[in-house]
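Q: Here's a chain of 224 amino acids. Please give me its 3D structure as tokens.
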Amino acid sequence: MSYVSEEELKSFLGKDLKDTYGRKIGKIIGLGIDDFGELKTLHVEHGSGNLGQYLCEHIVINKGEVVLIPDWKVSSELIQKELDRVTRRIQALGDLLKDRQIPANIYEELRRKQGTTLEELNRRKQDLIEGLKKRSGQVDRQVDDLIRFLVSVKMEYKAGIVDDRALTVACDAIEPNLKPLIEERKDLSRAMEKIEKPAEATGQKSVAQTPLKTDEPIALQLEG
């Protein structure tokens, strides 16, 4: 995710902030700078005097617009990268042990540290999955409510209770809001499917702890 500079964002003051799916979040009214002069947040007016702040690390500029990446998407991408990194480190340790490139006691020490990190990441992953499920449920309810209302208006139209204008007004109001919700629902489903896959399913090797015989020499290869 590319870094957005203070100078770039200053040119968007007074303009709209949208999310990944094109939904308007509000109007950009200011930038939050910390005590060290670093850009941290974007100040947004949501309408009717309601204000909000958004982390600039979740902000990108795309096709001349300032776009907010949803928290769940940022968290999902980050934790997958961290899990992959730790899993590869553990696998590398196992390979070093198998090739007798590392003493058993050093292996055990480093393996415990990486194992502790992996446990914490798996805990965070479960929390994230629960968050994804919660957001998915919210989106499902919003989609159902919009479709239910639209079907109701169309039924009224078919029954001759409302006219063409009423039908057009309802469709123009509902259908543009349905599309981003449906796209977000698809992305949520893909994110949950990807993050719930076991390590083997994502192409990562299972980590096996290979015991090292204490009477075997360590084949350390030192440069220099």
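Q: Can you summarize the key feature?
A: The chain has two domains: 6-69, 72-202.
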